[in-house]
Amino acid sequence: MNITLPAIVLLFFSLSLSAQVEMIGFEDLRPELEKEDDTVRVINFWATWCAPCVKEMPYFVKAHEKYRDQKVKFLLVNLDMPSNLEELVLPFMERFNIQAKVVLLDDPDANRWIPVVDQRWTGAIPATVIYKRNLRTFVEGTLTFEELDGYISDKL
Known about the structure:
By secondary structure, this protein is α/β, with parallel strands linked by helices. 43% of the residues lie in helices and 22% in strands. It has a 6-stranded mixed sheet. It is globular and about 40 Å long. The N and C termini lie far apart (54 Å).
């Protein structure tokens, strides 16, 4: 078998990204929406097929980098079909150099969990929850970097 170095590097990177993305149900995600500590939590719901999600993803990557040494945690909740993890989600993460934690939400009963995330959420994406203890912001729609940065810094 003749495998080139670039092929080996690509395979290794794909395997490490795959290990980085956990498939979870909503009950596994729920505790992330309810933490009561001194950390600002940024939870973004997105999908690779969502043009507004693609537009704002660089802002989340930039904010993650900006706040990496502060008490700010990012969780990017992907809503693609689980079967699209290898073909769409992992290449998307590589393309945008996403270093934040990514989970793929494998829970088809969105009518049950969407109002638990926020009563105002219609189900449209992108949607973002930014909170620290009882200071909570919910945004349905695309954020600019300045908006995202402002919501985060207001809670620090």
